[in-house]
Amino acid sequence: ALTEKLSRLVKQIRGQARITEANVQDMLREVRMALLEADVALPVVRDFIARVKDKALGQEVVGSLTPGQALVGIIHRELAATMGEGVADVNLATQPPAVILMAGLQGAGKTTTTAKLAKWLIERRKKKVLTVSGDVYRPAAIEQLRTVTKQAGAEWFPSSPDQKPLDIARAALDHARKHYFDVLIVDTAGRLAIDEAMMQEIRALHAELKPVETLFVVDAMQGQDAVNTARAFKEALPLTGIVLTKLDGDSRGGAALSVRAVTGAPIKFAGVSEKIDGLELFDAERHAGRILGMGDIVALVEQVTAGVDLQQAQKLAAKVKSGGFDLEDFLEQIRQMKKMGGLSSLLDKLPAQLAAKAGDADLDRAEKDIRRKEGIICSMTPEERRRPELIKASRKRRIAAGAGVQVQEVNRLLKEFEQMQAMMKKMKGGGLMKMMKRLGGMK
Ligand code: GDP
Ligand code: MG
Fold it and tell me: Which N-terminal residues, if any, form the signal peptide (predicted)?
């Protein structure tokens, strides 16, 4: 229902060239709701909305986007930027063994993540990894780590409930040094709620181990509570990263935004299944899409805004300059156009219930036109594509028959191509975008 509303608003503010106070008001209200529904904490939501508004107001709308779509783009970018730039990585830049300390509440996924991370480091970073459990309160916890560590193909350092966590840590570190482990991951005990004894214990472990990474493991399903938990851990420990677990559940993962805001630490990993290989580097862009619940639309808005593939455009510009632009390139442009998803495919990517409503005859025609052009060029031989001047009457008939169109249409395409070629010769790289839109029949 939410995306439906959002998308209605996207449509409502179509046809206006600028993002204004009036046309974003409703939209931002919906986004606010979306974030709250995704369990982002209220102060974080307020702050975020204010920032987006600031960025969006008065901004001109690029290319074929409506202000609504452009706003989605801005919101998405801001959301991703808030959660971290690009993809974070694990830091191992220290004299080995690099110690990674796992912190978090009971049930957050520390033990599981310890093993997943071990496997990840072995496979992706070719590291020799040792794990150890400092969870002496639940005998089963040590055994659990032993089992999952074995699955991960890493080594496990034995500990037992009658030892003190600090002694265990020292012994494990000593063992890791002596046996040239690259990484030692220290799993710790959690409690069901924040408690001072637990915090003191993990602070002591931190002081002893001097970990290069102190990862706060948090359950994405925890919702609003995640903020308080995160705050408590941040106050107790210098967190270097966050692992957001259980993202395979149906939560929208708003906790990411809150936890990031409260701790200031980068979100490094996402837990995406119970299985040992269910750990991924956190991807802020993708996660922003999930929080907004807007399907692929954000990705497409991004593409259009970025002017598609700059590299492609530059390559093309070089070709034009050298006079080598042929129908092969023309076809490439049409395909690019399709990939970039003209307006109608943008709408296609909207959630289904909406796409149904977005039926728009003009867009439909533009889309069909692109497909026909592609069909015609595909019916040409490679030589004809390189040298369109070869295409005389009999060849035209053959091509038309092959593409299932009238000869006039082949003529029209060739004419269009000629004009395009002439136009492009006069044009600098900056006009390419416009040209590509023309190609798509959606100027
Ligand atoms: P700990 O108390 O912090 O050590 O938490 P555990 O590692 O024991 O995990 C608690 C439960 O959450 C276990 O049943 C795990 O299988 C499950 N779990 C942990 N991470 C994930 C995840 O990313 N996805 C799913 N579906 N389950 C997870
Ligand atoms: Mg555990």
Answer: none
- Residues 61, 134, single domain; the answer is no
Determine the Cα–Cα distance for residues 208 and 227; give it in Å rounded to an integer: 27
- In a shared domain, residues 70 and 112: no
Give the full edge-to-edge strand order of the sheet including 98-103.
Answer: 155-157, 129-133, 183-187, 98-103, 213-219, 241-245, 267-271, 279-281
- Domain carrying residue 408: 308-439
Query: Taking a C-beta distance cutoff of 8 angstroms, is the pair 380, 391 a contact?
Result: yes
Question: In angstroms, what CA-CA distances link 42 with 135, 221, 241, 255, 379?
Answer: 34, 17, 23, 11, 58
Residues 129 and 242 in one domain: yes
245 is in an annotated binding site: yes
> What tens digit of pLDDT does each residue of 175-223 get?
999 999 999 999 999 887 778 888 999 999 999 999 999 999 999 988 7
Distance 186 CA to ligand 2 centre (A): 11
Q: Which domain CATH number covers 340?
A: 1.10.260.30
Atom of ligand 1 nearest to the CA of 217: 3
Domain membership of residue 92 (yes or no) is no
Q: For residue range 309-346, list pLDDT tens digits in order.
A: 445 555 655 665 566 667 877 777 666 655 554 444 44
Tell me: is residue 248 an annotated ligand-binding position.
Answer: yes
Answer yes or no: is 108 a known binding residue.
yes
In a shared domain, residues 104 and 76: no
| 176 and 66 share one domain | no
The rounded Å distance from CA 43 to ligand 1 centre is: 28
Residues 240 and 157 in one domain: yes
Residue 236's pLDDT band, with cuts at 50, 70 and 90, is very high
Q: Are residues 170 and 147 in the same domain?
A: yes
Distance CA 379, CA 391 (A): 12
Query: Closest Cα to atom 16, ligand 1: which residue?
Result: 274
Dist. CA 252 → ligand 1 center (Å): 18
Q: Whose CA is closest to 316, among 329, 306, 328?
A: 329
Going by alpha carbons, the residue nearest to atom 27 of ligand 1 is 274
Comparing 116 with 372, the larger pLDDT belongs to 116
pLDDT at 299 > cutoff 60:
no
Report ipTM (2 d.p.).
0.99
Task: Give tens-digit pLDDT for 245-280.
Answer: 999 887 778 889 899 999 999 999 999 999 999 999
Q: Is residue 93 part of a domain?
A: no
How many other C-beta atoms can be found within 10 angstroms of the C-beta atom of residue 331?
A: 17
Q: What tokens were used for 375?
A: 């069909």
Q: Is the pLDDT of residue 132 over 90?
A: yes
- The verdict on whether residue 361 carries a ligand-binding annotation is no
**Ligand in nearest proximity to the CA of 105:** 1
Q: Based on the structure, what is the number of domains in the chain?
A: 3
Q: What confidence category does residue 430 fall into, taking pLDDT thresholds of 50, 70 and 90?
A: very low
